[in-house]
Amino acid sequence: MSVRTISGLVALNASFAALGLSVLYALRGFSCWQDAARLAGLGHLLGVAGFGVVWTELLVLGVPFDRWSIVATLILGIAGACLAGRLLGRPVPRLPRGPGVTTLALLVTAGGVALVGLLLEALFRAARLQSLQAFDAWAFWVPKAKALYFFEELDQQVFTVSAGPTYPPLLPIMDAAAFHAMGSVDVVTLHLQFWFLLLGAVAAVAGCLYRHVPAWLLWPSLLVVLVVPRFGERLLTPQADVLVDVFFVVAALLVALWLEDGERWRLGAAAVLLAGATLTKREGILFAAVVVLAGLVASWRTRRSAWPRLGGVALVVVAAAIPWRLWYRAHDVTGEAPGDLGLGVSADRAVDALRLSLDVLFETSLWSLVPYLLLLALAAGLAWGDRRLGAYFAVVLGAAFLGGAWVTYSYADIPITANEALNPIVRYTAALVVLAAAAMPLLLASVWTRGAPEDTA
After folding, report:
1. Is residue 423 part of a domain?
2. What Rg, from alpha-carbon coordinates, does the chain have?
3. Is 230 exposed, middle or buried (0-12, 13-18, 19+ CB in 10 A)?
4. Which of its termini does the chain have fewer beta carbons within 10 Å around, N or C?
């Protein structure tokens, strides 16, 4: 731990944010610098996802992953996206305009930022000295990152023999980039990289919802999710769970907002995040399918125009996922999914898997009251708010919940237990809890206003 290593991580994540903001500039442009600052968190996540997707494909093609190629990728990505934005006629950001919000909203926002900031500051101090303890982290996630750092390629021995050989390489790519930024394989300071991801996720949700929900709904929802018992320092564990959850939740939020205002740039950003999710963890494929399915259901009335665009999102995700699958199949690695999709397993196991998923979802020692609050917000949205928005989140939650039960049901070697060392259902369910931070304020705002907000981002 030193100023040098921390400065390297700051520079790396600033580069991710610059890359993502450049992509946003190409997709939508910015009316002012205030607008760009509001979406900086979303830009950071887009930068991480885009960088990881591009480098997955480059590594499959055999391009060396060294320090200078990382720098070149970031510079070329930023320059290319900015050039595309200019060619598309996107407006150049101007000086900030007036805030245009009430004093009460400013006070609530300031209070929310202060409280979230205190929590993040405490997590930062914890991350600075946190040792590598999680089993999956030291068993295969970090060793894969070390192999990328030292060998500059998808080393066949490490990536096909260590545990989880079918797990996609986006997280090891990000970790190896962090090692290069720090100048060494510092597995303690590496935890700060996940703190930056958490910061970006909070800023992304807040920035996307800023003009769509009142501040008094936004910040309490974020806080109540961040302080659930199971999270804490687990948010900083160098594993893929939090990253895939963040990609999924922010992409689902973007599609929900697209249903409200029809801004097509949101689908472009969601496609990048979902592509990143599929290359972060195997569940990312399921999460991407859930978001697209929910979008199809919620846009039924406008299906002629909406479904082709959602189909484009699906095509981007599939195209991003294929090269990695081809790579590990070429190296005789199998086992990403059960051969018969679990159809040969008994009906009793299906009932037990559903019961386990329900027990885990409503376990207050893990998630406090967040799942109950989410269901109450969903019921209120369906009864008195925007029913299309309510239907969208109902499908997202329902399909994702059933997907978790299917994982337990279909893999016969996974026991029916909430023990995280034996069954991933607790880590999987965390995605539904994180989704509450985005879904609750949006659903309750639709009840409060009895319709969609007028302003768009």
Report:
1. yes
2. 21
3. middle
4. N
**Confidence (pLDDT) at 343:** 62
Give the model confidence (pLDDT) of 14-40 as tens digits: 999 999 999 999 999 998 888 899 999
The secondary structure of residue 337, as a DSSP letter, is S
Residue 250 lies in a domain: yes
The structural domain count of the chain equals 1
Host H or E run for residue 34: helix 33-38
Closest CA to 20 of 45, 37, 55, 53: 45
Residue 142's nearest CA partner among 86, 189, 95, 104 is 189
Residue-range definition of the domain harbouring residue 61 = 3-93+109-449
Determine the 3-state secondary structure of 108 from DSSP.
helix
What residues pair up with 88 in beta bridges, in sequence order? none
Element (H, E) at 94: none
Q: Which residues pair with 94 in a beta bridge?
A: 32
Domain-located, residue 205: yes
Closest CA to 255 of 170, 312, 201: 312
Instruction: Report the alpha-carbon distance of residue 191 to residue 193 in Å, rounded.
Output: 5
Query: From residue 73, how far is each of 52, 339, 378 by CA, in Å?
Result: 11, 38, 42
Query: Does residue 203 form part of some domain?
Result: yes
According to the 3-state scheme, what is the secondary structure of 413-455?
A: CCCCCCCCCCCCHHHHHHHHHHHHHHHHHHHHHHHHHCCCCCC
